[in-house]
TrEMBL record:
Pfam families: ABC2_membrane. InterPro entries: ABC2_TM, ABC2_TM_bact-type, ABC_2_transport. Its main location: membrane. This is Transport permease protein. PROSITE patterns: ABC_TM2. It comes from Pseudomonas mangiferae. Residues 25-250 form the ABC transmembrane type-2 domain.
Length: 258
């Protein structure tokens, strides 16, 4: 198990570095990109659209900061989903090796996505300090809070990586699915902005509790309700277990198809 974890981390590191190989700025692009995004969001939504977060909001920068927090969470999940269907063809040389543990490849995608999420969260916290003069100490709980979504992402990545071998259409469908998940989650609006009759449906989206909790933690310093958290964690663990089981069952046919 320790050997597999080391291998996942090393492959994840190589995955991150390979993305920026050959560029002038190198890995610093992972920091520059979210900074530029946040600056653009702040200007557009606070100065151009005069948008306010929630009913009766007065803080000009709150919309951009809340929006960026939602985009960070969605971006993590979106990266996992978009990469998964083409994962096995990308590592076809590993598929042909009987002794290679293919099940560690989907977690490599999750590790790579977590790295970029960490950088974006760091940018958000720096922006919060610049705008408001402080950072909530509760932000230290973010890794624990994100754990359920990480397990959901793992399950989906295992599932889609296996399906992508046999159904190449999955790769074409995922951009549409990712867009739907974004608009059906409170990325651009708080859950409270919806009529009460629709708010419950929003929580069928696995992104919703993660986005709402991350915003409350990072921007208001509020810890999640632990009962809801553990239910979410249980659902995440179940998702990971089902995804892994499907992958293990399907992987026997990978070499024949690829």
């Amino acid at each position: 198990m320790k050997h597999y974890l080391y291998l996942i981390l090393q492959l994840g590191r190589r995955e991150v570095l390979s993305r920026y190989r050959g560029t002038v700025m190198g890995i610093f692009w992972s920091f520059i990109s979210p900074v530029v995004m946040l600056v653009v969001y702040t200007f557009v939504f606070s100065e151009v659209f005069k948008a306010r977060w929630g009913v009766g909001g007065t803080d000009k920068t709150a919309f951009a900061v809340n929006l960026f927090a939602g985009i960070i969470v969605h971006g993590f999940f979106a990266e996992c989903l978009s990469r998964s269907p083409t994962l096995m063809p990308q590592y076809v040389s590993y598929v042909k090796r009987v002794v290679f543990p293919l099940a560690i490849l989907p977690p490599v995608v999750v590790v790579s996505a977590l790295f970029h999420t960490f950088i974006s969260v760091l940018v958000l916290l720096i922006a919060h300090f610049v705008l408001y003069g402080f950072v909530h100490w509760q932000a230290l709980f973010l890794p624990l809070l994100m754990l359920p979504l990480v397990f959901v992402a793992l399950g989906c990545t295992w599932l889609l990586a296996a399906l992508g071998v046999f159904l190449r259409d999955i790769g074409q469908i995922m951009p549409v699915v990712i867009t739907i998940l974004m608009f059906m989650a409170p990325v651009f609006y708080p859950v409270s902005a919806l009529p009460e009759a629709y708010q419950g449906w929003l929580y069928l989206n696995p992104l919703t509790p993660a986005i709402e909790s991350a915003r409350a933690l990072l921007l208001q310093g509020e810890l999640p309700g632990w009962q809801g958290y553990f239910l979410y964690l249980a659902a995440g663990l179940a998702s990971a277990a089902l995804g892994w089981a499907f992958f293990e069952r399907a992987r026997k046919g990978f070499a024949d198809v690829l």
